[in-house]
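Encode chain A's predicted structure.
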Amino acid sequence: MRYDALVVGGSFAGLSAAMQLARARKKVCVVDAGAPRNRFAAASHGFFGQDGTPPLKMIADARAKVLAYPNVTFIEGSVASAHADGSGGFSASLEGGRQLSAGKIVLAFGVQDRFPDIAGVRERWGTSVLHCPYCHGYEFSDRQLGILLESPHAPEHAMLIAEWGSATLFLNGNNTVDDEVRAKLQARGVTIETDRVVALEGPGQELSAVRLEGGRLVPLDALFLAPRTRPGSALAEQLGCAFDDGPFGPVIRTDAMKMTTVPGVFAAGDAAMLMHNATLASADGVMAGVSLHRSLVFET
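Encoded structure for chain A:
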């Protein structure tokens, strides 16, 4: 069976793309490994009509609605490789050897976070170590908030997070903030800690303090960081898609209609966006799905 579209990734972007294609009555196959990036968060916030809902429940509900369309197939697994098949479409091999054929592809496999080598970060990711203040800042209103310097944008991030609580920017041993930026941070009431962070302290997934080199503890309720990322799959590179350098890692290059530099290959979600947010990923997927359908209708 040849599908009209193969959607690689079944989270916010992928399922949103699949829904548009399903409603356009195209044969769609969604392949997903079941490890969405926000699986560590207890609740997703700011999503239209879903504020406070666990992200895994949102994904499960969305999948059920997409699978209600008889022209959609869902496969649990990973796509190991894909290539143009010489007839205007693509062939894909799943882990385990199963072969698929599709006219076009949507890459919605997301990204993987690369955490700093600090004890206690991974265990608290999505609970008290966070990425987006718009997603989780409200729940830590008027508390002690930290920002770890992981990118040149961290001082700006700290100025923003000061909207939610008392903010401390941890330079983590990198004395790279110039006098002008320091003045702006101080004007926003942001405290600067220059020493290297060696560990996070607190019971379970809660955070109570950051331990600095030398043993000093800085009380803290939540730590925000923007980790480096890498694509969740090597498929874009295999297919020959171009990448741009994003602030946190490589980003699949797409045009305004979400087509990559490879004709017939579209990309959506965190792997193809500079800003990472569940709502934005879903909207990106809608655009990719609609654009793919239009390409099936209007290409010559």
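The chain is about 25% helix and 30% strand.
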